[in-house]
Prior knowledge:
Blueprint: H1 18-27, H2 32-40, H3 53-66, E1 74-78, E2 96-101, H4 104-114, H5 124-134, H6 140-150, E3 151-156, E4 175-181, H7 191-202, E5 205-217, E6 221-224, E7 227-230, H8 236-245, E8 248-257, E9 271-279
Parallel strand pairs: 1-2, 1-4, 2-3, 4-5
Antiparallel strand pairs: 5-9, 6-7, 8-9
Helix pairs in contact: 3-5, 5-6
Amino acid sequence: MSRADPSPAADASLGPDPGRAAVASAYQRFEPRAYLLNNYAPPRGDLRSPDGVGPWKLRCLAQTFSTGEVSGHSLIDIGSGPTVYQLLSACSYFEDITMTDFLEVNRQELGLWLREEPRAFDWSVYSQHVCLIEGEGESWQEKERLLRARVKRVLPIDVHQPRPLGEGSPAPLPADALVSAFCLEAVSPDLASFQRALQHITTLLRPGGHLLLIGALEESWYLAGEAKLAVVPVCEEEVREALVLSGYDVRDLRTYVMPPHLRTGVDDVKGIFFAWAQKKGGLEV
């Protein structure tokens, strides 16, 4: 799920693969609140500059949803981590949203916000910015109420399993759309594992459905409190190739170069990618 750039959406299993087992073990030290402060509080969380990473991600999402092509009944957010910003535009287009994460601590952090508890992270600056760029006259309070109403469940997930949500999931399957931010590259020990994880989540999406994928470019590590977590470095062309090999038409692929003042020492990320891809095999929607 999401990181202000890299992500915590931790999804790895303690299976026979030693690389995946090491990833899962490292994520047991993941600290959601430290991750949020590193990536979603200033300077990265300062949305006043249109050239910042936060406004760029929010624009990519809002512009894609505004086409009207990415809509339907059900959407699954793959590896939500402790963040909700990635769904602020989506909630106007989908009535049934499922959030997911491998880590219980991240699912608990999401629950604080969904229940409007005082200890929850404050996403109001992000909600206000999305309302501003969408220009629909919606207040940020209305936006947050709508998102809370449309998130129907928060579930465990393991993207390294062929059935990432397990058997008998309460999520409506196949989904009309998937969103995933800073998850796959952050929980995969190598590029081949990244590719397989993408193929696994693609099984949750109906033919003709859409995937909006955000991730880190050329990143090898990030910090979340005491945890220093490894990331598989990917470049733009590797992302494109992985999507094509997983059976998608790539509708849009944009990149953002992280400026020096946002390279704050909490990771070694070089940039961000945003991909809009449509699963083959169905009619255009």
